[in-house]
Description:
Blueprint: H1 2-20, E1 24-27, H2 39-45, E2 48-63, E3 66-80, E4 88-97, E5 103-106, E6 117-124, E7 134-136, E8 143-147, E9 150-153, E10 167-168, H3 169-181
Parallel strand pairs: 1-5
Antiparallel strand pairs: 2-3, 2-6, 3-4, 4-5, 6-7, 6-8, 8-9, 9-10
Amino acid sequence: MRKAIYLLVLGLVVMTVAACSEKVQEGGPSQLETYVTSLEELTAKASDIVEVEILDQQETIEYGGVVFTVSSAKVISTQKGPLASGAIMNVLETGGVMSNGQEFKFNGIPVAKKKEKLFLFLETYQGPITQDAYVPIGAYQGKFKVENDKVIQLTPSEEKLKDYKPVKKEDFKIIIKEIIVK
């Protein structure tokens, strides 16, 4: 009996230490500031829709107890807005690696990584954190990863766009152009 209690206490201590040393923290609001339910709505709200390659995470900023990451990105193609192919732009995202080395994922979604290719539905950022940057609509609802020539929405399952399923990159571009023309 004494050995069982010892093992139980030891197990609890090990689990507590493991939980406290976790390098990834997740969090986020109960509701997004901007929430969209369809690709049509996302397209309408975006001032710019671009395909980009992330060049580097330029800066991690802690503001108001939250970590933000500013990444530089090269525009590969433009579906909507004035950003030209080849332009270098800054993307501001909630999340990143904090000064204590812990990674913060906003509602479980990591910030963009170097060399990652994305389609971003953007608006110009206006606020105190940085200058000359864009933010994805709906924090991450306007962020789609290009993986194996498929475009995948990077959003928790309960916040995914209704009726959206991963499609080939070229088909995604056609769908967006058709929505814009409507």
